[in-house]
Amino acid sequence: MFTFKVVPDNGDEFVIKAGTRDVLVWEKTNKGKSYAQLLRDPNLTDYYKLSHIAAKRQGLFTGSLKDWEDQHELDLSFDDEAADEEPDPTQSGPSPDHSSN
């Protein structure tokens, strides 16, 4: 559902995948919040809460949300799908521009 590249102040970066169980906990602990709202209008507060929930569930972090926020950056430019894709061998480079004849 959501993939976060996490950059701790001390230590190596890692990737967290937040699934439906994490989103469910996030919805239940944040009155008036919904999955649809998160997709429509994401914000850093919700990303930090969701990534904290996922990190705790996966045993990657045991501290409080405040500790998580104080000790970690979320790399929002990280594109999990692009990182998983293999380059297309049929596309060796840009096509030549033939319109300048």
What can you see in these coordinates?
The structure is a single chain. Helix content is 42%, strand content 16%. It has a three-stranded antiparallel beta sheet. It has helices at residues 20-29, 35-40, 44-57, 65-71, 80-84, and strands at 2-8, 14-18, 72-75. It has five helices and three strands, in the order E-E-H-H-H-H-E-H. The chain has one domain (2-79).
Secondary structure layout plus pairing:
Blueprint: E1 2-8, E2 14-18, H1 20-29, H2 35-40, H3 44-57, H4 65-71, E3 72-75, H5 80-84
Antiparallel strand pairs: 1-2, 1-3
Helix pairs in contact: 1-3
Helix content: 40-55%
Number of folding domains? 1
Structural class: alpha+beta
Mean pLDDT, nearest integer? 85
Output the helix-strand order: EEHHHHEH
Number of strands: 3
Which geometry do the CA atoms define?
globular
The biggest beta sheet is recorded as:
3 strands, antiparallel
Task: Work out the radius of gyration.
Answer: 18 Å
Low-confidence stretches: 85-96
Strand composition percent: 15-25%
Count of alpha/pi helices: 5
Q: What is the strand arrangement across the widest sheet?
A: 2-1-3
N-C termini distance: 48 Å
Biased composition (Acidic residues): 76-88
Region (Disordered): 75-101
Biased composition (Polar residues): 90-101
Give a brief outline of the structure.
The protein is of the alpha+beta class and 101 residues long. It has one domain (2-79). It is built from 5 helices and 3 strands; from the N terminus they run E-E-H-H-H-H-E-H.
Characteristic terms for this protein:
single chain, 101 residues, alpha+beta, 3-stranded antiparallel β-sheet, 42% helix, 16% strand
